């Protein structure tokens, strides 16, 4: 290790489900990015039991860079030499501080779907989502960002097998847009119903669902050619190929979103350190670099402007249609 290596420590919240896996994925991505460079050193990772105990974990490390899942870590830190904080939580609204980089970007799927449909100038969109807390959150984020009118909203009930009403309403309401996000059997039954009705030829359909091609019939795959998958991150792209291969070699698994973020931590630190280490935050502002998810830029407040990818669901693979650069949804400029 170089005499003046830049030191990095990961702090994770024990109250997060699978926080140990989260940490290991971050470390794996970071290791791939740094690739053994001696001027960076990853120190021991620590966990904290809820944000009220964050300072206790922070006091256990003297790292130059603190990577955590606590968006407002900088404001909560007391005393000591100021480290650079890197927040990997998507919960980043209004945490406008002077030494924190927010790397996750805006990954609210409902909002991303709305932004894409806004770009198509759709005027009347019908939404069909899971009847759950997550499904209602998707509807709220979609509604708050969609510039057209909501033609209707329905929720899929667990075990539902008949989707004729939900498919038929697209015709009745004369919707020109459709947004759906479903899981499991509900998703594949709904896809089959949409394909059989041929309604997909009449609307701009967008989904943020995770679709496993092995569970989709050939006939339905052909019909899905008109559906657009909007995704904040997908490992099955050309840009992600090298990272996916390296992550698999290191861990035996496909890269998770947390693994991607660990890789981006390494990338942004290497770029910022080229300009010196006295003020890494200032060096990182307005940086842009090529991530496995596409081009990423840091804005003037330390927030990542991330690419949202729109894919065509081709019969055998995803085909990139477009990318949209999405600024973080915060009020730092106010």
Explain what you see.
The chain has helices spanning 19-34, 54-58, 73-76, 109-119, 133-145, 164-172, 184-197, 218-223, 241-251, 257-273, 280-284, and strands spanning 6-13, 40-42, 46-48, 65-68, 84-87, 100-102, 124-130, 149-156, 177-181, 204-207, 227-231, 288-291, 294-298, 304-313, 318-326. With 334 residues, it is an alpha/beta fold. A hairpin with a 4-residue loop joins strand 14 and strand 15. Helix 1 packs across helix 10 (257-273) and helix 4 runs parallel beside helix 5. It starts with 5 loop residues before the first strand and ends in an 8-residue tail after the last strand.
Shape: elongated
How does the helix and strand content classify structurally? alpha/beta
Percent of residues in helices comes to: 25-40%
**In angstroms, what is the radius of gyration?**
21 Å
- First-to-last CA distance: 43 Å
- Tally of strands: 15
Mean pLDDT: 88
Largest sheet: 9 strands, mixed
Q: Outline the low-pLDDT stretches.
A: none
| Run of helices and strands | EHEEHEHEEHEHEHEHEHEHHHEEEE
Tally of helical segments:
11
